Amino acid sequence: MSDLLSAASLLMAVIAIIYSLWYPELTEKLNICPKPHKEDNVADCQLVKMALISKAIPLSILALLIALTFLPDAVKIALEAMSTYKIHGAASINLYNAVKTAYFLVSIVSVALAFYIIVLMLKLFSLWRSLR
User: Taking the model in full, what pTM does it have?
Assistant: First the structure.
């Protein structure tokens, strides 16, 4: 289990670092406002398209793959914890496993980050379509 925790933590850290490096550029593109005339949006459309292709889409795919890789084990841990609590009640605190809990939390944060990155990508895609 500790190997899984190490792998999940490492991959989540990689996504978080890439995300933190690219976030300013992606949000800068989200501040672009479409102009009334289509011809005036050509340069902005190209900037948003490049941000989508080079950063938002690859980051979304990578974050989603990492989240989906570790989610099944996190679900197993959650189900196991609920089953243990159902059987042992408050005495189940003696069966607490910090490594499993940490793995579960890293997995949940990974899913939340993937969700947020996908929402950001969808906003950029929507902006790109409005600029076209």
Answer: 0.81
